[in-house]
Amino acid sequence: MNGYERIKAVLNGEKPDKIPVMLHNFMLAAREHGVTMEQYRNSPKVIAETFISSVEKYHFDGILVDIDTVTLAGAVGVHVDFPVDDAARSHDGNVVNLEDVFKLKPAKVEDYKYIQVWLEAVSLLKEYYKNDLFIRGNCDQAPFSLASMMRGAQPWMLDLMMGTEEELSFLLEYCTDASSQFVKLMSQTGCDMVSNGDSPAGPEMISAEMYLKYAMPYSKRIVEVAHKEGVPYALHICGNTDVILEHMMLTGADALELDYKTDIAKVYDLLHDSVTFIGNVDPSGVLALGTVDDVRNKTLELLELYKNSNRFILNAGCAIPPTTPSQNLKMMIETARSFM
């Protein structure tokens, strides 16, 4: 099997010849390729070359094409800072008062420069690898997360308790439309999977009841958009997601990418025969700061737990830091390659 075939197999619940590996390594890949994040985010060609170089070095099966976590926010008017050698970021929302949501102009995310850069990079990678490697086109924020960026994290938390249902619903519908647009555009690149992150919707920020009311239904609609476009969908939430795992499954996502803080035994019990699990080695404490032995041992723990399930893709639990030693990443992948 090649990388594309391995990941397709596990998404269908079929047994691969080896444990598939799909890395969330865009910042590390850029640094190892010798380009700044500014050079990376501004050139589809550089993005494609960066990932091709990383695949040649580590020989993994699937590329998670990411630029940062604020591109979709920038496309709907949130102010974004662009550090030379760090991922782009936002600090304040563009909706000063919640009642201002009714004044928002319809989103047209395809007009934003960095959306187009992202789409073209995915197209270039798919054209280069065809069906040899699996290409996952990430689509930045899910609706709840995008709403959080448009209002600012702290005001959004207060909105959930003090805002009117009409205001909250209007903003979430607006964000669902923007997220849907990105998913539709990404599916047209020929990518093999789309995904979103929704970390502000996790239990470290809101209750399970709030997730079920304000995040899950809108994520479910994004999954339906992806499926209508003919591509599988992965949902990522950081932190400990123990109490919302069953709610996340209700979105209909084909795969859940979860942080190392989540109880893996619970993940296995709930997901092992129905939803593909992507993860979840600790990206900082183990991959970036641990020893080679730490990486091997933690990877083996994960592989042993999931050895009787076909629905598993090895990755870190979140974005891999750019300071991660190459020998640690190689050890994680080598451990997976020799496991079966």
Helix and strand layout, with pairings?
Elements: H1 3-11, E1 22-23, H2 26-33, H3 37-41, H4 44-58, E2 62-65, H5 71-75, H6 113-129, E3 134-141, H7 143-151, H8 153-162, H9 165-187, E4 193-197, H10 208-228, E5 233-237, H11 245-249, E6 255-258, H12 264-271, E7 276-281, H13 283-288, H14 292-305, E8 312-316, H15 326-337
Parallel strand pairs: 1-2, 2-3, 3-4, 4-5, 5-6, 6-7, 7-8
Helix pairs in contact: 2-4, 4-6, 7-8, 7-9, 9-10, 14-15
> What Rg, in angstroms, do the CA atoms define?
19 Å
The largest sheet is: 8 strands, parallel
What share of the residues lie within helices?
40-55%
Number of domains: 1
CATH class: Alpha Beta
Can you describe what's shown?
The chain is of the alpha/beta class and 340 residues long. The protein has one domain (3-337): TIM Barrel (Alpha-Beta Barrel), CATH 3.20.20.210. Helix content is 49%, strand content 11%. The protein contains 15 helices and eight strands. It has helices spanning 3-11, 26-33, 37-41, 44-58, 71-75, 113-129, 143-151, 153-162, 165-187, 208-228, 245-249, 264-271, 283-288, 292-305, 326-337, and strands at residues 22-23, 62-65, 134-141, 193-197, 233-237, 255-258, 276-281, 312-316. The protein has an eight-stranded parallel beta sheet. Strand 4 (193-197), helix 10 and strand 5 (233-237) form a beta-alpha-beta unit. Helix 2 crosses helix 4 (44-58) and helix 4 crosses helix 6. The mean pLDDT is 97.
